[in-house]
Every structure is written in C-alpha cells, then in structure tokens.
Amino acid sequence: MLVEGTNDIVGSVSDIFISQYRHYFDWGGRTVAHLFAQFLLYIGKPYNAVFTALCYLALILGIYYHAYGLKPTLKNLRLFPLFFITAFLWICMRNFGEVVFNIVSSCNYLVTVVIILYFLLPYRLSFCKEKIDSGVLSVIGMFIFGIIAGWTNENNSAAACAGTFLICAYHYHEKKLALWELSGFIGLCLGFLILMLAPGNEARLDFMESGGFDYEAHLWVSLEIFFISFASQALLVIAFILIMIKIRSQCLYLASPYQYYASLWLILIGFISLAVMIASPNFPTRSAAPFTMFSIPGVLGLAVILYDRAETILPGAIRKVLMAAACLFIFATGTSTAVGYTQAYNDNLYRQEEIKAQLEAKKDKLVVSPLSIQSNKYIYLADVQHSEKYWTNLILKRYYNVKSIVRSCDFEKSSLPNEFLLFAKIGQTCSTEVKK
C-alpha cells in the first residue's frame, strides 16, 4: 500500500492521513471510506478480518433494528428474522464477495452503509413516536454523525439525504420536527457536499473522459446494469409484491401505519441509491449492493405487519420447503466459497515466491502464473492480467518498482455476469500464453 501520489509505502497512521488528504484533491472525495480502507490494510490480518466480520454483524443487527423499529439491543432477538436477513443478504446481494470480503470494496459499500443505517435509525424510530426530545448532545451528535454519514459514498449519501428530507418535511408539516432531526439533516447535506465537491472528483472525471466518453452509450450500459440488478433481486422483489398484495387487500396498513410507511421509506432509500447510479459516469455492479441492504429491512418490516396479526405470506409447507432450499443453497455455495478462497490463498503463496525469485534475479519485467480459480458472485479476485496496462498491473508495477508485471495468460471471459456464477471453478486453464 502506497502513500497517494508517491512510491512510498505507508509506514504509519500519519501517512494514511497524508495519503487521504492528497487523495481528496487528486482522485476523489470518499475520505471516510478510504481512511477505513487504508487503516485496515495497514494493520493487516487477522485484525482487518475481525473488523469486517464485526461490521457485517453490525449490518445484520442494523437491518433487524430498522425492520422492527427498535433501539439497539441484544435482548429478545428473534431467530427467524435473523435467518431471513442472513439468507437474503447471501442470496440477493450483487457481488457479495467483492462487497463483503474485499477490504477496499467493503469499506466503500459495507462500512458506509452500516454508518448510514445507524445514522438513519433515530429517524426510523421517529415514525412511531409523537416527538423525540432534542437535548444539546443529541443535536450536536447528530450534526457530527450526519457529516460523517454524508461524506461516505455518493449514491448512498444522496439516498439518505432524500430520505431524511422527506421525514423532516413531514414532521415540519405536522409541527413535530425535532431540532436533532434538522441538525442531522444539515450535517448530512454538508458531508454530502464535502464528498461531491472534492477537487479529486473533477480530476478523475477528466481522466475518464480523456480516452473518449460517450454519454449515450454509457446510458444504455447503466440501464442494463440497473435492470440486471433488479433481476438479481428477484426473490426480494417477489417477497415484496406478495406481502404488499396481502397488506393492501386486507387493509392492514391502516392498523400499523407507522410500520407500513417506515418500511416503504427504507425501500425508497434503497431504490434511490440504485437509481441515481444511472446518472453516474461510472456504474460498477457492486454499487447495487446498498439497494439490497436497505430493501431487506423494508420488506421484513412489512412482513412484521402480517406476523403480528398471525397472517402468513405462504402456506406452512411451502415455507418449510423454501427454508430448506435456502439452507441447502447457503451451505453448498458457502462450502464452495471457503474451498475457493483456500485455493486462492495457496496460489498467492506460490505467486509471492515467483515474484521474489524474479526480483532477486534483478528482472524488471515480471511475469506471473495465473491463479487456478476465477471470480464469481462470492469470490472476488483483483488479479493482474495479461495486459500490462490493466489497473491492477499498474498498481503492482509501482509497488514493486519495476517496468511491468503481467500474468502469463488470461481466462476466457464468461458470458454471464459474476452474480450468476455461484460455485468455485478450480484448476481452469487459460490462453494467451507468453514466455516468462
């Protein structure tokens, strides 16, 4: 890991702050996310793995609290909702391996969503209370928390701003707007402006456009990613439709209006976080993950309305079959993922020996063997490629201070997006051979 704009390796926490200061002006405004990323890379394993696991646990609990409208507590947690959350995250989230297991991507999408989820929790609780009192500490705390939440990630922060604006506007109309709600919203918008107005964003956009940028062609690609993202959420969307039909047909929303509208509010935030990416100059598929993270508590919150009245979405026999199928799927893909990452770890050990031998031989053009496993929905590998101009090749070229580094061959690209590739492929051969 290098200090931004230099070939110097990060050697202290102060180097991380210097690096992110430069990053803000040179490449982008996600200072909060990248502070986490560089710090976790700096402390290394197993500490960053423990942090990621705790963050994922915080995500599950945050979704649970939002769904039920509860203050954070570990008392009286219900097993089935926790299973529901875990299963839908594993099955529906796009690019799960990249978003959860990769340090940098997890800081950009997992950590940032967790921050925003807990920032939004008081607003979620305000749905079911006449008015939450505003103490001085809560006003100041929500303002600071808002700045941090708004400074995390463009699409998530934009969605959070829209969501908090709706609540503040409604509470203002109802004459029950609390000062902490307003200060939190102002802080959130301020953090979002700090994020969006970073000089590095313009520098990055200029770099993207320097090679030619066709906005019309990009729009069609963005729409394709948008609709594929919905297709990958089929189970979640179907669950939402079935629950809504049941609630609306029996007018159950009249009995639990706060729970009903709070759940739709969360789903709306998730939808906005995905929809705004259509206008972005870059729409990576991993940016669809927050849609899943915000929509799950919304769908579960709607299901709570049914279960509180002993209503069911599906007959008991069908529910049991679906739960058994989900458990089998999670076990099979989870086992495959564990085996795949173990193989990737062993391949990387061999890769390091290859690089070490070539560096000791004073070679400045490195050639490495391919890993014997490919990326899929649950396994993310940011590997070098045969082309020395690929982004990971350029990063490692700087890190090892050599003229180039390439992989001896490339795998044939699958015709299917990664989220539809579920099981590890080990021992695959590749083509485009070059001499070492």
UniProtKB/TrEMBL annotation:
<feature type="transmembrane region" description="Helical">
    <location>
        <begin position="179"/>
        <end position="199"/>
    </location>
</feature>
<protein>
    <recommendedName>
        <fullName>Glycosyltransferase RgtA/B/C/D-like domain-containing protein</fullName>
    </recommendedName>
</protein>
<keyword id="KW-0472">Membrane</keyword>
<dbReference type="InterPro" id="IPR045691">
    <property type="entry name" value="DUF6056"/>
</dbReference>
<feature type="transmembrane region" description="Helical">
    <location>
        <begin position="219"/>
        <end position="245"/>
    </location>
</feature>
<feature type="transmembrane region" description="Helical">
    <location>
        <begin position="49"/>
        <end position="67"/>
    </location>
</feature>
<feature type="transmembrane region" description="Helical">
    <location>
        <begin position="291"/>
        <end position="309"/>
    </location>
</feature>
<dbReference type="Pfam" id="PF19528">
    <property type="entry name" value="DUF6056"/>
</dbReference>
<feature type="transmembrane region" description="Helical">
    <location>
        <begin position="133"/>
        <end position="151"/>
    </location>
</feature>
<feature type="transmembrane region" description="Helical">
    <location>
        <begin position="321"/>
        <end position="341"/>
    </location>
</feature>
<keyword id="KW-0812">Transmembrane</keyword>
<feature type="transmembrane region" description="Helical">
    <location>
        <begin position="79"/>
        <end position="97"/>
    </location>
</feature>
<feature type="transmembrane region" description="Helical">
    <location>
        <begin position="103"/>
        <end position="121"/>
    </location>
</feature>
<feature type="transmembrane region" description="Helical">
    <location>
        <begin position="157"/>
        <end position="172"/>
    </location>
</feature>
<feature type="transmembrane region" description="Helical">
    <location>
        <begin position="257"/>
        <end position="279"/>
    </location>
</feature>
<keyword id="KW-1133">Transmembrane helix</keyword>
